[in-house]
Amino acid sequence: MGVASHRARVGALVAALTAGVLVLGSGAWALGAAVFPHEDAASARSGIAVRPSPTASPAPVAVAVQTPSPTPTPTFDKAANSIDDPRSIWVVVNKSRALNPVDYVPPDLVQPPVPNINGQPVRQIVSGPLATMFAAAKSEAGLSLTLQSGYRSYQTQVSVYDQDVAANGQAYADTDTARPGHSEHQTGLSVDISAASGECTLNACFGQTAEGRWLAANAWRFGFLLRYPSDKVPVTGFTYEPWHFRYIGLPLATELHDTGVTTLEEYFGVPGGETYPG
User: Fold this and answer.
1) Do 151 and 123 contact (CB within 8 A), yes or no?
2) Peptide bond into 60 cis (omega under 30)
3) CA–CA separation, 133 vs 129, rounded Å?
4) In the list 88, 125, 185, 220, which could disulfide-bond 253, CB 3.0-4.6 Å?
5) What is the DSSP code (8-state) at residue 182?
6) Which of 184, 211, 241, 265 is catalytic?
7) Which residues contact 235 (CB under 8 A, 6 or more apart)?
8) Residues 87, 123 contacting (CB under 8 angstroms)
9) 239 CB-near residues (< 8 Å, 6+ apart)
10) Rounded to an integer, what distance in angstroms lies between the CA atom of residue 160 and that of residue 78?
11) What is the mean pLDDT of residues 61-81?
């Protein structure tokens, strides 16, 4: 083969190879363009498909979450009323704690609008709740109640106590009759309640009557406390009196009911006991 012919054949071969590369390059660019449509013109012209860098995600923004403060549980204010002032509805009177002055007389005694065996008055603040309680016993349970005793003066208590001592001896009298100056009745805040029928009047069996059971379960709703429960004699100092209720006001009566505390001595942390000092 001559030199001219050889050169012609090599030239044709080079031309063919060059055309193939261009075709392949064009195909590669076309493929790259289809897969990566956002490539720049330079990449397309070079026939090399370049995947663009992914767009960076924005940095997360920290959001402060405000946690609400828990609402504090309200506590009962034990200092709202005095337990020493005889005018206070929370005054605590027992064998260890005499009234001061010992011959205290309430300034606001009234006759309550309820059946009243002995005609004794009560403090004005007691009158309305007492009448409401009697009415509720009638409307809710068909029970008729009577006020047996209310306020007793210092001098009246002297007479009551002396009679008990004369009849039963001082040791016995001290278990169920307060000495003068130590009686809740002198505050005008305590009442003895009986059934209108007279069943078990001023007797422990009153606690088993329909009237006694209703009072024990419901008196707190009207601001009264069963003052001398059967299981608290060492605390209160007096035998079980299911007829004796003390007005302490609805807030304190509700507090004692809700907490399960049954005596003023335990709730306020003051002395009680079965003996008198001295």
Assistant:
1) yes
2) no
3) 6
4) 220
5) S
6) 241
7) 263, 265, 266, 272, 273
8) no
9) 175, 176, 204, 228, 233
10) 33
11) 77
- The tokens for 269 are 């942390």
pTM: 0.74
> Would you say 190 and 244 are in contact if contact means Cβ atoms under 8 Å apart?
yes
Cβ atoms of 95 and 276 within 8 Å: the answer is: yes
127 pLDDT higher than 80: yes
pLDDT (tens digit per residue) in 13-55: 445 444 444 333 444 333 334 434 444 444 444 444 445 555 5
Looking at residue 54, its pLDDT comes to 54
Q: What is the pLDDT of residues 210-265, one digit of tens each?
A: 999 999 999 999 999 999 999 999 999 999 999 999 999 999 999 999 999 999 99
Higher pLDDT, 74 or 3: 74
220, 248 contact by CB (below 8 A): no
Q: Which fold has domain 109-268?
A: Muramoyl-pentapeptide Carboxypeptidase; domain 2 (3.30.1380)
Q: Any idea where the domains of the chain sit in the sequence? A: 3-46, 109-268
Regarding predicted confidence, which is higher, 146 or 43? Answer: 146
- Length in residues, the chain: 278
Measured CA to CA, the distance from residue 216 to residue 19 in angstroms comes to: 113
Query: β-pairing, 122-123 with 244-247?
Result: unpaired
Active site residue 255: no
Alpha carbon distance 16, 89 (integer Å): 119
- Decide if 236 contacts 265 (C-beta within 8 A): yes
CB 195 within 8 A of CB 243: no
